[in-house]
Write a structure and sequence with these properties.
With 134 residues, this protein is of the alpha/beta class. The chain has helices at residues 16-28, 39-47, 66-76, 89-93, 112-122, 127-132, and strands spanning 8-12, 32-36, 52-58, 81-86, 103-107. The protein contains six helices and five strands, in the order βαβαβαβαβαα.
C-alpha cells in the first residue's frame, strides 16, 4: 500500500459518482486526493501551495474543458503529470502540445488496474512498488 508520500492527486470529474469511485480507489491505494467537480473548482487548488503530484481530469467538463484546464495547470505547475479520462484516447494523443512524457489518457470505462498503471507511469513508480508500498 502506498503511504501517500508520492503526493496528492487532484481528481477533476463532473460526474459525482465517478469522482467518488476514483477517489475511493486512489485512497485504497494510499494516495491522498482532492476532488473538484470542474475547472472552476480545480484552478484555485492548482494555484495554491499544496503539493499536487498529478491531476486526473475528465476531458468533457462543463465550462472549461479538460484540455484547457490542462493548459492552465501546466502554466501554473510546469511538468505536472496529467491523466485525461475520456472516451477518445487516440484523439487526445494527437493534440498539439500533448507531452507523452508527462501526460497519459485512459479510456472510459476503465479498470482499476489500468488506472494504477497510468498513475504509476506518470509518477515514475513501477506498478509493483505501488502495489507493495515501496
Amino acid at each position: 500500500m502506498i503511504d501517500g508520500s508520492t503526493g496528492t492527486i487532484l481528481v477533476v470529474e463532473d460526474e459525482p459518482i465517478l469522482r467518488m469511485v476514483m477517489s475511493d480507489h486512489l485512497g485504497d491505494l494510499g494516495y491522498a486526493t482532492i476532488e473538484a467537480e470542474d475547472a472552476r473548482a480545480a484552478l484555485p487548488v492548482l494555484g495554491g501551495d499544496l503539493p499536487i503530484a498529478l491531476m486526473i481530469t475528465d476531458v468533457d467538463l462543463p465550462g472549461m474543458d479538460g484540455r484547457a484546464l490542462a493548459d492552465q495547470a501546466r502554466a501554473m505547475r510546469p511538468g505536472l503529470g496529467i491523466l485525461f479520462s475520456t472516451g477518445d484516447v487516440a484523439g487526445i494523443r494527437l493534440w498539439p502540445g500533448f507531452d507523452a512524457a508527462t501526460m497519459r489518457a485512459i479510456g472510459k470505462p476503465f479498470e482499476v488496474e489500468d488506472l494504477m498503471h497510468a498513475i504509476s507511469s506518470l509518477l515514475k513508480q513501477p506498478p509493483e512498488a505501488a502495489r507493495d508500498g515501496q
